[in-house]
Amino acid sequence: MLQHPVEAAAFGHALAQQFRENVETVASPAIGGLIIGYEVARHLDARFIWTERENNVMTLRRGFTVSPGERVLVVEDVITTGGSTRETIDALEQAGAHVLGAASIIDRSSGQADVGVQRYALATLDAPSVIPENCPLCAQGLLVTKPGSRKKVTSDK
Length: 157
What we know:
- There is one protein chain.
- It is globular and about 50 Å long.
- It has two domains: 5-126, Rossmann fold (3-Layer(aba) Sandwich); 130-157, no CATH class.
- Strands 3-2-1-4-5-6 form a six-stranded mixed β-sheet, sandwiched between helices.
- It is built from four helices and six strands.
- α1 (5-16) packs across α2.
- By secondary structure, it is an alpha/beta fold.
- The chain has helices at 5-16, 34-44, 83-94, 136-139, and strands at 25-29, 47-54, 57-60, 71-79, 98-107, 119-124.
């Protein structure tokens, strides 16, 4: 849906409504959270920044900085384990920001992902993840791609 600007704007507006007060900056992990983070920031009239991996560590780059105590909302498109969101929060807190919460369009963890701050999602799904050793498609030797993942999952068989 984020490929359609009108729909992206509507989802951004819906998320922004949950965080109307006190947000100075919206931050998203690159790359999946960029469009929705920008839209949330636009609806909140807030600044928008993002984190990226550098040497496998989520960090603020491209000259982005935060002021001590700056009130930041972290926004993602989809939260599965919460890993990228948590890494973004850690990078922001290490830089001195105060992270108010996290938001996403979809929560695939059934509300179980712990990112260390209060979270809000427009929709919550029960979409279990499996490790390669327990994956029936991997057992068949099929290549499995998890959207948004940093690597393809393959079976050792």
